[in-house]
Amino acid sequence: MPTLTRDSVRVPADVMPEAREIYIENYLKATQGTGRLMLFACDQKMEHLNGDFHGPGIDASDNDPEHLFQIGAQGTIGVLAGQRGLIAQYAPDYPQINYLVKMNSKTNLIKAAQDDPYSPQLCDLEAVLAMREAGVNIVGVGYTLYLGSEYESTMLSEAGELVAEAHANGLIVVLWIYPRGKAVADREKDPDTIAGAAGAALCLGADFVKVNPPKATDDATSAQNLAIASQAAGRTGLVCAGGSKADAREFLANLHDQIHIGGAVGNATGRNIHMRSLDEAVRLTNAISAITLGDCSVDEALAVFNGEKAFEL
Question: What is the DSSP string of 165-184?
Fold first, then answer.
């Protein structure tokens, strides 16, 4: 299992001296002391509305938003990422979870054919800091931006300011970066486009960047192409989006390749976890963390998922 000491946490220069120890503490919390990130993405209630939470193939328990927090409390995760209001409603009952506040969101009702995507910031950082001051265990913030959108400059500016302000207050920052819009067309998952998104996150100062896995090409697998993006990200840790619900073995094998071939430093998974029953979802968080945080093999992680083996940090 990779381990990280307080002295080995690399602190960016935009973290103010008085916030340095807070940043280190938050970084260690978010990565469970490993330097790797297991991000439980719970922002889809706005991003995808209720389509991800009710219907065929989705466990009935997922329609209750508290299901997300029960998974986060009972499973093995680094951070639970969700909008400020969602966290505010449930965090008092689940104080042990590490929270990452998603600062912007949009719904999926306006399609790209109608308008290029733009995800507006929902609140200012002061509202998040006030929640932290009130006792909510907030370790970081997140922001989605769409490179290639005609609103790209606005999102870049908002993200840049957010990173600077968050770091100054000791919070870590995860950027969701998805190339999308008329200028990108069908190149959203091209390896060079994904690598460009990773490099943009570094230039904005993010601690981690969440990207979609690049598509495979004639001469390389998706994981091999991901290695280009991981290198382009430099000191910004790259994690991949989990995508739609998949077979557990297939999902875990892809995750293992993303880390050990593609150079990813973790994962960002939502639907693959929360669409399942509480018991199954908890076991999957443990299996994902066995790979992400514990460096286990796919077979070992699958044994954790099947309840044949325990995983503890």
Answer: HHHHTT-EEEEEE---STTT
